[in-house]
Structure formats: structure tokens, C-alpha cells
Amino acid sequence: MAIFRTAIGGTIAGLFAGGIWGAFAGEPYGIIGGWFAALVIIGLLWFMNHYVGLIHNSAEGSFVDMATAIGTTCIVRDLMMKGTAELSASIPTFICLAVGGVIGGVLAYVAQKSMEKDSEESLNA
Questions:
Q1: Among 21, 58, 72, 79, which one is least packed by beta carbons within 10 Å?
Q2: Cα dist. 80→14, 19, 47, 87 in Å?
Q3: How does pLDDT run across 22-43, given as a tens digit for each residue?
């Protein structure tokens, strides 16, 4: 049931972010609309998915945030609406995202190990 709840929560987040964001951040409202969309859409969906607990994150597993679900939902939506031409044009962006994710993961690992080392040293001192 947890996997089903996570899929539903992620899909709802993706549909709202992909479908409504452009209406706020588009021509009539500009950057203020984008900030409003970020606050309202992402804030509401974060509350629903993480605080209420629709997205399940086990302590043993990797933490999956809404960005993964939003990105996947938007890709699938665009594939269904526009076909594969748009997807092939975005491959350089996917490569940059993968490289950035690897760099972020490595830096997080190094930071965590450094904090554990500092904690051990303070306990031994």
C-alpha cells in the first residue's frame, strides 16, 4: 500500500506542478507568479506528501523527494502530448542533471563522513 500511496502522491505533485505552474509563471504574472506558484503549489504538495505522509520514505532506503516524481510525470505527460521529438532535444539536460546528482551525492557523502569524524573526535576528547 505504501508504494501505491507514493505513486499517487508523486503523480498528483507532477500533475499540479506541470499543469498549473505555467499559468502562474507565464506572461500575465511574471516572476511574482513563479514565486507564488512555488509557495502555493510546492508548499501544499510538500505538506500533503511529506507531512501528512502520502509519500513513504523508509529509514533503510534512499530518500525520494517530490522532484523525482514531478520530473517523471512531466516527461511522461510531454511524451504523450508531443511525442519523442521533445525528449531527444532534452538529452543534454538529462546528462547535466545526472552529473550534478552524482556530484551532489559524493559531496553529501564526504560531508556526512566528516561530520561523523568530528563527532567521534569530540566524544573521545
A1: 58
A2: 14, 14, 29, 11
A3: 888 878 888 898 899 889 998 9
